[in-house]
Design goal:
Strand content: over 45%
Strand order of the largest sheet: 6-7-8-9-10-12-13-14
Distance between the termini: 53 Å
Largest sheet: 8 strands, antiparallel, barrel
CATH class of the largest domain: Mainly Beta
Number of domains: 2
Helix content: 10-25%
Number of strands: 14
Length: about 300
């Protein structure tokens, strides 16, 4: 077993050495890895516990991308952006939003190479996007005992996370909603929900999707009346508060309609049915309208 581990470590060491090349840059000998090859190459390595990045041009010259701190202002000077802009200015690219990380630099160099060379192909990495929304509507709390089938107003907010590429139809969301009580329905609640969303229609200006809220945590207040066992015909009214964590797997539907560059009108019909919560006998009413925007 020890021999096997030794052999694997040795092979790994050789493969690591093979993946690196030696360069002399400003009198310094460095072992660098090639991350991107094209009209511009991206070289990098971890040296003395610091990430260092270099750009190699077609003529073989190598420039380091640096981000030094001004000793007086204590602010980073971002010299690497000026270096990148100088190397890519002929195609109108801007490095203003580029961060000095391997992933961000790789995206930018790939973008330049694909712009300057029609034979250079690459697929941009998926980026996480997010939206924040507010909403309000009416609900009859279909999973709560509601003898008069009373509808009450509710309002809330939602934070949604999704990808802009291959997984753009999929999203996760976290929402907070508060439902008020009515004169004949003394029940109010505040609920936190965590769920999954799938956009089965996903156009640039609108989408229609299904929601699956799989975890909820509910704080509620209710007023209950019951007959006094010692005094038949006498009813006792009691207010009580409690909370509960559930995994109900509640299904719902929704739609986002784009109305501005970054804003959407959202429509929702939630609490249609739950796998692990029983409907209390009333047809589910849970309609909401709101507005959400890209962050």
């Amino acid at each position: 077993m020890k021999k096997l581990v030794f052999i694997l470590c040795l092979l790994f060491s050789f493969s690591s050495l093979y993946a690196q090349e030696s360069y002399i840059i400003n009198g310094e000998t460095l072992q660098l890895k090639t991350e991107v090859e094209g009209n511009l190459d991206l070289l990098w390595n971890t040296i003395d516990r610091q990430y260092r990045y270099f750009i190699r041009t077609k003529d073989g010259s190598i420039q380091e991308l640096v981000n030094t701190k001004n000793p007086e202002t204590k602010k980073y000077q971002e010299e690497y952006k000026a270096t990148l802009n100088e190397l890519t200015q002929e195609y109108g690219l801007s490095a203003e939003d580029v961060r000095l990380t391997l992933a961000s630099l790789k995206d930018y160099i790939n973008m330049y190479n694909s712009t300057s060379d029609i034979n250079f192909n690459y697929e941009p990495r998926a980026k996480m996007q997010s939206r924040l929304g507010v909403f309000g509507g009416l609900t009859n709390q279909p999973f709560v005992n509601n003898p008069n089938n009373t509808s009450v107003p509710f309002f809330g907010a939602e934070f949604e996370v999704y990808s802009d590429k291959r997984l753009e139809r999929h999203a996760g969301y976290f929402n907070l909603r508060t439902a008020l009580e009515a004169d004949d329905f003394k029940y109010s609640s505040t609920q936190l929900g965590l769920g999954y969303r799938y956009r089965f229609i996903n156009k640039s200006n609108f989408s229609i999707y299904g929601n699956l809220t799989f975890v909820t945590y509910t704080f509620y207040n209710e007023t209950v009346s019951y007959e006094d066992e010692l005094n038949p015909g006498t009813y006792i009214t009691k207010k009580q508060s409690d909370s509960q964590l559930e995994a109900p797997f509640i299904f719902g539907l929704g739609s986002d309609i784009k109305v501005t560059k970054n804003g959407y009108i959202t429509l929702a019909y939630n609490n249609l049915i739950a796998l692990f919560n029983e409907n209390e006998g009333n047809f589910p009413i849970d309609f909401a309208v709101g507005f959400k925007f890209n962050l």
